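tool_log.txt
---
The assistant was asked to compare two proteins side by side. It first ran the structure predictor on the initial sequence, then on the second. Raw inputs and outputs are pasted verbatim so the downstream comparison step can read them without reformatting.
(1)
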Amino acid sequence: MVDAPTLLPEGRPDDKTRLGYAMVATAATLFAVNGSVSKVVLGSGLSSLELAQIRNTCAAILFLAFLLVVAPSRLRVGRRELLFLIAFGLVGIALVQWLYFVAIENLPVGVALLIEFTAPLFVALFARFVYKEHIRRRIWVAVALCLTGLALVVELWAGVAFSTVGVTAAFGGALALTAYLLMAERERRHRDAASLSFYGFLVAALLWAVIQPLWEFPWDVLGENVSLQGNLSEYSAPVWALVSFIVVIGTMVTFSLLTGSLRHISATRASIVATLEPVVATVVAWAWLGETFGPTQLIGGGIVIAGIFVAQSAR
């Protein structure tokens, strides 16, 4: 992994560094579109749990097929890893995705992502007080910015302008995403990203299969057509096609782009570029779903994103 961009003699990043940034930006954009696609699917009759179940199950199958073809040896698991992989799958995959779907089902997509993207702030705080890492003092600036921005976004003085369930799920998703980032950061020294993701999705899929056996899944819904809602409400699409987009484009392709980008730029730089996601998601949700925000919420969103940038640079 590269800690800083490779520079040309004139001080400009080289082609590989620019490629890394482009890959992260593309992944963030696809993730942003995936939020609106997921919201449409949730309007088809599938619950947030059912959408998380089919996404996790299909992703596990696709990752397994990939690893069996490319590197079956990566599927080996030591006994010491077992408990970690179970915890990673339950918290880092299952909870993150389910809470995200609950959040976007009850909140505008942009608001849900803004709240969840405060995870880097919690990562830095955890590193400071639990890992005892040296964190720059600017972390407290980041805390102030994020809290101020979020208060403006949810209109805290008015008793929270959005669904309490949605806001709670989004904050829960931020904490679960924090756990995911910390666990993935710890385990990347011992296991490659593809096999770690496979076992995470596998554990999540098994959890949902216990809660709701696959034979009870409403498979008939996948064959129905659903309105694309908002400004595209006159059009419709098969639910199975939208779910396929979520699994293939919103999971597999985006994962590959993010993983590949780390060969060219550092994880910190990649995560900063990834903050494009809530910005693009807000624009996509406005253009597609007709979700709008007042000037106070737009200002608050900008303050939150500034806080996320500061938090990333503090560690």
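(2)
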Amino acid sequence: MPGRRDLVLAGSAAVVVVAVLGFGFHLLGPPRGQRAISADERRVSDLRTIAQQLNLRTNAQQIHARQGAPLPATLEKEWPRGYSIHLNDPLTNVPYEYHPRAGTAYELCAVFETASAEGDAEYQPPSPFWRHTSGRRCFELDAGKPAPW
């Protein structure tokens, strides 16, 4: 009866493999959900880079001019195509929203697919400042102050 025993062991092993895979998908979520989280991570990273670069630009102009330098009217004028700064959403290719305000204040907006910090398996942004809900979220920033990490 070794053939029957081998068949039972092979079937049991297959059931264990399927159960482990199912549990893994349950913990991680479907691949589509992981892609959405990854895209949101990229959006936060892009917005952080834009904020840091605007901060560096403003500080350098203030040192040289010894006065408050105005922010650019658009991000595209500041960083035309070819720069390593991503100004567009990684999935939709729609430009991130940028709204200069009074002085060195400005707003950056993006549309997120997921909410950050919803659970242990969710993406945790680098700073509480960058937490977001799903949907459109705007961040109020000031280029004259250190950019939030």
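---
observation on (2): The longest strand covers residues 105-112. The chain has a mean pLDDT of 79.
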